[in-house]
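Hi team,

Filling in the usual template for the complex we talked about on Friday. All components are listed, including any nucleic acid strands or ligand strings, so the model treats them as one assembly.

SUBMITTER: L.P.
PURPOSE: interface mapping
COMPONENTS: two
RESIDUES: 556
SEQUENCES:
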Amino acid sequence: MLHDDLSCPLLRARSVTKIYGDHVGCLGVSFDLWPGEVLAIVGESGSGKSTLLSCLSGAMEPSEGEVFYNADATGLTDLAGMPEPQLRALARTDWAFVHQNPRDGLRMSVSAGANIGERLMANGARHYSNIRTTAETWLEKVEIDTSRLDDLPETFSGGMQQRLQIARNLVTGPRLVFMDEPPGGLDVSVQARLLDLVRKLVADHELAVVIVTHDLAVARLLASRLMVMQAGRVVETGLADQVLDDPQAPYSQLLVSSVLQV
Amino acid sequence: MKQQSSPTSRTDSPSYGFAYLNEQTKRMIRRALLKAVAVPGYQVPFASREMPMPYGWGTGGIQVTASILTPDDTLKVIDQGADDTTNAVSIRKFFRKTAGIQTTESTDEASIVQTRHRIPEQTLREDQILVYQVPIPEPLRFLEPRETETRKMHALEEYGLMHVKLYEDIARHGNIATTYAYPVHVHGRYVMDPSPTPKFDNPKMDKMPALQLFGAGREKRIYAIPPYTKVRSLDFDDHPFEVQKWDGACALCGETESFLDEVILDDQGGRMFCCSDSDHCGKRRETAGDSHAA
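RESULT (copied from the run log):
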């Protein structure tokens, strides 16, 4: 990728804290995410994973701490100090957000082609045939038959909707992807296919990914680095295989040992 | 109790000020109008009043008209281009009664034209004002239901979504099938809904010498296009904007260049086309009649 400077992280979190009244969302989370790296945040539900993801993606302002993004023009920039137009522009060009429920991330009332084309049109594409061709290419990339281009997402299966959501997000060539439990709610074989696809796309497009999941298998398959959260705090962090094979913190040990074996 | 006639009213009805609305309300609406003219295409919120007619019948347009009327004005009201439909007749009557002004069916003689669904075929002049009745002022509404979000999109000029709608049209119908309320880009800044006028009328809005005012009563919004403002209809590079065309001509006056209504004549499939602008059609028939007589 053109802009990736390996001397500087893409995303930097410094003691990110979010307090809801007297509840803790997440507490003092710090890390650096480097270009092309996949970071998985794992933990039980209620451990602050999704709160952290919202803070990282600019959807929510942290109560304390800062999130910096390495924007093209300005270098490492504090998201809190970034003007809203710039933040929204980032969100539709450099970033992508894949929701757990594809219905949250898709526009259900327009066709698959329009869903994929939306980000292109938001960034100024005004040539119908070009938009359509690009949409077709992306349908192929996410293994959806191109004859479904003009069909509504309503008519797609859950797995196809999730793949369509991924295509819609990646069409502008983002550098950083946030994923919130991407295979949640899909049956196991569809999950496996989706994970394979995501792994391929991440490798092909050299994406940096922050992925939130409660599923250690997802983390094992996709992530290069792992962060284990419990009650809003990071209890352990390290290379994915290292944490999964030799967990140090008591909670990580519990988490790893509670995976059902077949 | 005996009622006394108000000295400011030009009518016999003592309970109304001039043109129905009270002076404070008119001042409030005029302020909104000034802002709307200053920022072409921007939807200015205003404190829309209850009017003695149902929403959807032109409560926004009628408030705008009431606020800009002067005793010397001549008002024309059209509904779907025609002067003789219920809505048009009753609004004319309303202002004759509450403002005592002159009304007309002739586009030429009018100083203010209030319209629902059409722009008169005849080119308007600098000394005329066109008032539109608007049901839903927000062009982005059907794709983005949140008002907070659409306002933000207007503020940041994020209009990609409008093209998603046009894309969807082409994908489904092979061409841009939006035929009315066709979105326009005003003065290179705001995207605006031209009210449910047919897209046939969109080119007339561009650089129009007359002032164009839009009132949406239920949605409480006013917007405007000042005279000679650039108004461009949105389109794709490879699917340019075009207006409707008809194969036939007006059965009454023979016009081929105007917007034609299809009229079903019987249940045997009989039909005819005629001008939707009744004044335009009438004038053409009159001149044709004159030339026959001469």
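MY TAKE: Helices of chain B lie at 23-38, 59-68, 86-99, 147-155, 160-173, 202-205, 278-293. Residues 1-9 of chain B have pLDDT under 50 and may be disordered.

Thanks, L.
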